[in-house]
Amino acid sequence: MGFLFWGEKNQFKKKFNQIKLKDLQKELTEKEVEQDVLTNEIQRWSSEYDGWFRKGSDPNATDTDLQICASRMEICESNKSRIESELQETVNEVSIIQAAIGIKEQETKGNKSSILNTILNSEGTELQTYLTEIAVATKNGNTKMETALDLLTKPQVGGSPIRSESFNRNIDKLKKARGQS
């Protein structure tokens, strides 16, 4: 949506006047489907993490199994984190689209409210601020998600590697689950 704010003139006004309500509703549906897909992926990575945790916490698991499981758990955490970030972006886009639909619906009813005129006549960062405020207001309280962990996507390998914090945390979890300290 950054393209709407380029330049001195209100590009949003021009684009907003050209877009149709039907197109906004179609885009909203596509984004909602994308949210469902991302939510399912998050659940899949969580399940895979749990599977590696169970395997690594088996008392009969070798040290090699333990390290493999911790590495796989780290990858699962990283992928889940990345997808959560994508989901947050989609949630924000949905909110903006919902706000635009609300404005378009008011416009088609002939209700040229002062907020619509304010938005269409504003420029630059002022315009972006208005749209963001509307998007936040339309989220109905769902304005934040858990902050995703910043994890590496590839485990480090080698003879005596310096492991990441998440890898070491996963090793500790597995050892604790196996009754080791």
Give an overview in words.
The protein has 181 residues and is mainly α. The protein has one domain (7-177). Helix content is 70%, strand content 0%. The protein contains six helices and no strands. It has helices at residues 11-18, 21-56, 63-108, 114-121, 124-138, 165-177. Helix 3 (63-108) packs across helix 6 (165-177). It is elongated, with a radius of gyration of 23 Å. The relative contact order is 0.16. The model is unreliable at 1-7 and 141-160 (pLDDT under 50).
Residue share in β-strands: under 5%
The domain count comes to 1
Radius of gyration: 23 Å
Tally the beta strands: 0
Instruction: Report mean pLDDT, rounded to a whole number.
Output: 74
**CA-CA gap between termini:** 50 Å
Give the helix/strand class: mainly alpha
Apparent shape: elongated
Summarize the biggest pleated sheet. none
List unreliable stretches of 5+ residues: 1-7, 141-160
Order of helices and strands: HHHHHH
Helix content: 55-70%
Q: Helix tally?
A: 6
List descriptors:
single chain; 181 residues; mainly alpha; 6 helices; disordered N terminus
Question: How do you describe this structure in short?
Answer:
The protein is mostly helical and 181 residues long. It contains six helices and no strands.
Which helices and strands, and how do they pair?
Elements: H1 11-18, H2 21-56, H3 63-108, H4 114-121, H5 124-138, H6 165-177
Helix pairs in contact: 2-3, 3-5, 3-6
